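Chapter summary example.
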Amino acid sequence: MNPLVCQDLCYAYIRRQPVIAHFSHEFRPGITLLKGYSGSGKTTLLKLLAGYLRADSGRILTPGGTPVRSRRYLRREVSYMFQGINLLPLLSVERNLRMAAEMAVLPGRRWKPRCEQLLRELGLTELRHRRADKLSGGQAQRAALARTLMKDTPTVLLDEPTSGLDDGNTDIIKRLVRSDGAQRICIISTHDSRLFDIADEILDFDLPVSC
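The structure predicted for these 211 residues follows.
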């Protein structure tokens, strides 16, 4: 698989100092952690890589060569787990996963076994018919990860996937991310030191940047 390449990226919110300043890096298959304090630019970088924000300058080269802000890239080549749980509250866990697959235009022969795998590995099989708004915090976080991974994309971006979780829920998420992330480019924004041992590389966003 080709890397996800950042070339001299800069981004600043209106009337503020740059959050991302001359950032260059090649993200290769495996797990990369972006560690750092709140406001250090981790989430901003994830949103640039997802195509949700447009860089002020610099380039992003996707593994498949698809433009980073194109519809195809957003639907089929990248998955994003938001820091706030992004489930449709009135739908069941299983229906949330199915909708993610439908948005990515995955055929049933691909999404059905993928759904069963994710429900099983995240301990959600018995909760598959429960509405998202009836889940506990840990259950909802695991369901949100399952929904993100349903698209089975080459690039996965996770924003604070274990924030506020106890050790038990964190261990469940770590096991799946460790096995699934090795097969793709998996970039995780986190300040949770419990995730450090699953990383293939760690980028420290606490280090000062200049533009």
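To summarize the output: Helices lie at 42-50, 71-77, 93-103, 108-121, 137-149, 167-181.
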